[in-house]
C-alpha cells in the first residue's frame, strides 16, 4: 500500500469517520495505487475535493506548511 494526499477547496468540508476534513488539512489515504486513492476520496466527498498527490510529491514541495491542521488519515 502506498500513501496519497488529497486536499480540499475553500468551500469543501466533510465529516468522515469522526474527523472534519476541510481546506485546513491534508487527507492521507492508503491505497494500492493513485486511481484507487482518488476513488476512495471521490466516494467520501461526492467528488468535492481539489488535488491529489503521492505523499512523496506533497512532501517534496513542502506543501504541508499550507495546511495548519496537518495530516488527517481517514482509512
Helix segment tally:
2
Count up the domains.
Answer: 1
Helix content: 10-25%
SSE order, one letter for each helix or strand: EEEEHEHE
How would you classify the helix and strand content by structural class?
alpha+beta
What is this entry, summarized?
The chain is α+β, with helices and mostly antiparallel strands and 75 residues long. The protein has two helices and six strands. The protein has one domain (2-73).
Describe this structure in words.
With 75 residues, the protein is of the alpha+beta class. 24% of the residues lie in helices and 33% in strands. It starts with a strand and ends with a strand.
List the helices and strands and how they pair.
Elements: E1 2-7, E2 14-16, E3 19-21, E4 26-31, H1 34-45, E5 51-54, H2 55-60, E6 71-73
Parallel strand pairs: 4-6
Antiparallel strand pairs: 1-4, 1-5, 2-3
Q: What are the defining features of this structure?
A:
6 strands; 2 helices; two-stranded antiparallel ribbon; four-stranded mixed sheet; about 80 residues; alpha+beta; about 25% helix
